[in-house]
Design goal:
The complex is a heterodimer.
Chain A lengths: L2 E3 L4 E5 L4 E3 L2 E3 L5 E7 L6 E5 L10 E2 L10 E3 L8 E8 L5 E3 L3 E6 L1
Parallel strand pairs in A: 2-11
Antiparallel strand pairs in A: 1-4, 3-8, 5-6, 5-9, 7-8, 9-10, 9-11
Chain B lengths: L3 E4 L2 E4 L5 E7 L5 E8 L3 E10 L2 E4 L6 E3 L9 E3 L8 E8 L8 E2 L3 E5 L1
The chains are: A mainly beta, B mainly beta.
Chain lengths: 108, 113
């Protein structure tokens, strides 16, 4: 079975500081990996997916197959980045397996 | 926001009663999903459906049932057999295919009294 681990439940950084949200996955094949975000009073929504190799709102995530990681990074955090972030993987069965989430707070 | 709706927003149930949560989408998506969200546990998949009249159990299907009679609708019934039903329930939909984005509804908070 797939597992997605987000070791930090809570993460606080100051505005302008770099931020990294950790995600590790367990899957023997080649998973599709995603980061979803839920801002306060908004719906859960896709932030980015590794297959697109895109940068959204200044966030990037690199798939490291050797370390089975897909950490989310942003060089300069903004207050509006405060939200709950979920890492998710999709294997051959196509369903998403979510991590337990990391609540990011960006302090002024 | 539009596209995928859930109702009601809040739902209260007495122990021993079944209750049905509604999920509707107008995105023309073939696949629909139900998740349960509990604090500190993330989202866990209850049931999913990739085509009308077909659905599969997810990781925590016990005590739940679904139907998929129409492409637009995927109602979830929380039965009295579900031992700990108080939770936040999220519905999602997507196009069928690996790596496709799932679009989420606003959720229903169910409380068992």
């Amino acid at each position: 079975a797939q597992r997605v681990t987000q070791p930090e439940k809570l993460l606080s950084v100051f505005k302008g500081a770099p931020v990294e949200l950790k995600c590790n996955y367990s899957y023997s094949g080649s998973p599709e990996l995603f980061w979803y975000v839920q801002y306060s009073r908004q719906r859960l929504q896709l932030l980015l997916r590794h297959i697109s190799r895109e940068s959204i709102k200044g966030f990037t995530a690199d798939l490291n197959k050797g370390e089975t990681s897909f950490h989310l990074k942003k060089p300069f955090a903004q207050e509006e980045d405060s939200a709950m972030y979920y890492c998710a993987s999709s294997g051959s069965a196509r369903q998403l397996t979510f991590g337990s989430g990391t609540q990011l707070t960006v302090l002024p | 926001d539009g596209g995928i709706t859930q109702s009601p927003k809040y739902l209260f149930r007495k122990e021993g009663q079944n209750v049905t949560l509604s999920c509707e989408q107008n995105l023309n998506h073939d696949a629909m999903y139900w998740y349960r969200q509990d604090p500190g546990q993330g989202l866990r998949l209850i049931y999913y459906s990739q085509i009308v009249n077909d659905f599969q159990k997810g990781d925590i299907a016990e005590g739940y049932s679904v139907s998929r009679e129409k492409k637009e609708s995927f109602p979830l019934t929380v039965t009295s057999a579900q031992k700990n039903p108080t939770a936040f329930y999220l519905c999602a939909s997507s196009s069928v295919g690996v790596g496709n984005e799932q679009f989420f509804g606003p959720g229903t908070r169910l409380t068992v009294l």
